[in-house]
From TrEMBL:
Protein name: Ion channel protein
Domain RCK N-terminal stretches: 2-122
Domain of life: Bacteria
Species per Swiss-Prot/TrEMBL record: Streptomyces qinzhouensis
UniProt cross-references to InterPro entries, sorted A to Z: NAD(P)-bd_dom_sf, RCK_N, Trk_Ktr_HKT_K-transport
Cited PANTHER family: POTASSIUM CHANNEL PROTEIN 2-RELATED-RELATED, POTASSIUM CHANNEL PROTEIN YUGO-RELATED
GO BP annotations, alphabetical order: potassium ion transport
Pfam families named in the record: TrkA_N
Length: 216
């Protein structure tokens, strides 16, 4: 397999990540799940998803999942220390792949980034912020919950700038643009630096579910 997605840890977080990816066009035959539980892997296989049983902190296990050819890796382990070790191992085996990892505690986020993760999601604090927002404004909380669930209501998507938009103000694209990704810099829509748009920019937009084309 080549250019596939590896999901390490197939509990609630791993399954939710897969559901979101599939909602944007990822096929089951483009996914390999790695989990230490044979029952979990058997369950994945019953759903038509290839799996590898084993400890993903070990290079041999990740090599069985063909990590060296993977396009992206989602690390959704139960323990933060395991997530760090898996990230270190995966990055050593594939310097180019995109690694997205989840941790429970925010203090472990920097360590994961140092270990090679491109993006780190802190599950405990993210859930806490959503709870707090829902208390302060149930409507705002409902909108955020809608955005989190890909494929229903509103979706948050990333797309390239088209030629007709080059040189224009970010607010004149016809889409509800949240941020502009320019190189490795994420620029807010209200930042004067966001405009004019450049051909190599990518836009983070909010769209009606089902109206967005995949970003490829």
């Amino acid at each position: 397999m080549r250019d596939h997605t590896i999901i390490v840890g197939f509990g609630t977080k791993g399954r939710s990540a897969l559901q979101t990816l599939m909602a944007t066009g990822l096929r089951k035959d483009q996914v390999i799940v790695v989990d230490p539980s044979s029952k979990v892997i058997e369950s994945a296989a019953a759903e038509g998803i290839e799996g590898v049983v084993g400890d993903a902190t070990r290079s041999g296990v990740l090599l069985r999942a063909e990590v060296q050819r993977a396009r992206q890796i989602v690390i959704a382990t139960q323990r933060d220390d395991t997530a760090v070790l898996v990230t270190l191992t995966a990055r050593q085996l594939n310097r180019q792949t995109k690694i997205v990892a989840a941790v429970r505690e925010e203090e472990n986020g920097p360590l994961l980034r140092q270990s090679g993760a491109d993006t780190v999601i802190t599950s405990a604090s993210a859930a806490g912020r959503l709870l707090g927002l829902s208390v302060l404004s149930p409507s705002a909380g409902a909108v955020m919950e809608d955005l989190i669930h890909q494929g229903s209501g509103l979706d948050l998507v990333e797309r390239p700038v088209i030629k007709a938009e080059v040189g224009r103000d970010v607010r004149d694209t016809g889409d509800l643009v949240v941020s502009v990704l320019r190189g490795h810099r994420l620029i807010g829509y209200d930042d004067p630096a966001a405009s004019p748009l450049q051909l190599t920019d990518r836009l983070i937009t909010i769209v009606r579910a089902g109206s967005a084309e995949g970003d490829g």
